[in-house]
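Protocol step 4 of 6.
Sequence for Carrier domain-containing protein (Xenorhabdus bovienii str. kraussei Quebec) entered exactly as in the expression construct, tag removed. Do not edit the line below.
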Amino acid sequence: MAPRNALETQLCAVWQDVLGLERVGIEDNFFRIGGNSLMAIKLKAAILRETEIDIPLSILFSHKCISLLTEWLETGSLKYNLINLLTPESIATNKLFMIHAAGCGSEVYEPLAKALSDVYNCIGIDNYNLFTDNHIESLQKIARIYLELILTETSIDKPIKILGWSLGGQLAMEIAFQLEQNGAKDIQLFLLDTVINTVQLTEIKNQLDMSYVLSEAAIKLQAMGVGDAYINKVLGAMPFEHKIVNCNLSGKLMHTNITLFKAGQMNSDYKGDIGLTVNQLIAKMPDNNISAWMVNPLVIKLINDRSHADILESTSIISAEIIDKLSIEENIRI
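Step 5 output, structure tokens:
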């Protein structure tokens, strides 16, 4: 099969040079067309020289053809750069994974992570769709990537704690479901004003003018002093994030415990008649429709003076509740 893009064309040329062949296809197995262990080492050096990409030798052995290698370069290599150590100097043994919201990375959690650093080593999971042109619009698929990242830092048999604001909370719930399917039973989620759409809410949100939403987002980011390159990444990811929000969770959580921090003020990001309707529907859901997706009782902490947009500014309230939750758990274990 012929190369499909510039990267595959470049890799085909490298393989041809290393193997001394006139033509290599993207489905050709390196080790079946003349390659061996010593030549794989030579291939690794040649790829680094020609593309400035340093591919681990183990990846060359496990991804034997160019199509698999480019798939790894587009997804596998990227995902391991999504871990953001928010509290690198923390000596805490407890870990709290912080999943990005829409339109940003995990850097928004830095003040909260700092407030928790004495008791939690906070690990951010950055926004996959901000760092690739191969955007993902499936909640299940992107959650699976983040789950794999989390399991590089912990294991199924240990307590797993995840925090997420807005879309980050929806992602956390899907990750929790997938963890449960793999045998995890000790999972705690902290959701910052996450709303799980009802059928009616989805129908109303789909009436929002995306061009207006994108324009408003750009204005907001510019006012914050964000650079054009990052703004373009955010705007490019937003249509895909909108589709992720509209995805249904895979199923009900059977073992997971959830604390929801609910904002008491209207979300100012929703404007016009449609925005008013969205706010009214959310106001009628005291649990943000979270309870429908879990078996255990939901714990709700209302933050009256905050809206969806600024709930993260209630660092002291949120951190105190999370720390108190940990203290109770540790006393029970003792």
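Step 6, annotate. The first helix runs from residue 6 to 19.
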